[in-house]
Amino acid sequence: TQAYDLKKASFSAGVHGHAAFGYVAGKNVGIELAADIGLLCKKYEARLSNVTLQGVPYDIRITQQAMPVIFNPAIVVQNGGDKWNIYSRLGLAMPLFTDIIRDEIFTNLPGSGAPTTDDYTIHLKNSFSLGFTGAAGVEYRLSNRMSLWAEISILSLSAYIKQAELTAITRNGQSLRSPTT
After folding, report:
1. For position 2, what pLDDT does the model report?
2. So what's the pLDDT on residue 178?
3. Most buried of 11, 56, 80, 177, CB within 10 angstroms?
4. This prediction's pTM
5. pLDDT value, residue 11
6. Integer distance in angstroms from the first to the last C-alpha of the chain?
7. DSSP states along 38-62
């Protein structure tokens, strides 16, 4: 941790699945219960060259990726138009799973001793903290059974690390952990 720092992990960038159930009371106000599931979230990567650790030069590659599952209860307000329906949604972001997987690979440089590549996988578990979510969109009804949608949304959520667990260590492709740990 003295040689690098990678602070980024996004809970909303990348490909997500979204499942929702909603109910409209009247024509203009409703509620939505939704879950957002990260399927292919963005990986953040840092590469550092010729970093000296304990007198030995290394190339370092760090990747970090969030794997979120977030419950989003929200209030929906819409104009309720027959052909065009403009709506907005505002609610809470309640994290059910906000773990981050971090992979750190250290490769010593030629001429610094026997070539080694050490790979550490760290599982970061976060504390529960509420956030918020919001969206604005438009629906265009093509028929009674088909519509086109366009939406812009935002998710704001801060993660606070509760636990870091080293889940895998390899040196030159060989595991350094016993099968029982």
Report:
1. 46
2. 55
3. 11
4. 0.71
5. 81
6. 24
7. EEEEPEEEEEEEEEEETTEEEEEEE
| Angstrom distance (rounded) from CA 42 to CA 45 | 10
One-letter amino acid identity for 90? L
Amino acid at 84: W
126 contacts 157 by C-beta, under 8 angstroms: no
Sign of CA dihedral 158, 164, 165, 170: positive
Can you read off the two tokens belonging to residue 23? 């109910």
Query: Which positions ≥6 away from 47 have C-beta within 8 Å?
Result: 59, 60, 61
CB 35 within 8 A of CB 18: yes
Question: Is residue 53 within 8 Å of residue 4, measured between CB atoms?
Answer: no
Q: Is the dihedral of CA 135, 141, 145, 149 positive or negative?
A: negative
- Token pair 């505002």 is found at 90
CA gap 135, 177 in Å, rounded: 46
pLDDT of residue 170: 92
Q: In the chain, what's the furthest Cα-to-Cα distance?
A: 74
Residue 29 phi, psi dihedral angles, 5° rounding: -130, 140
Dihedral-angle region of residue 142 (phi above 0 means left; psi in -120 to 50 means alpha; beta otherwise): alpha
Below-70 pLDDT ranges, the chain:
1-7, 177-181
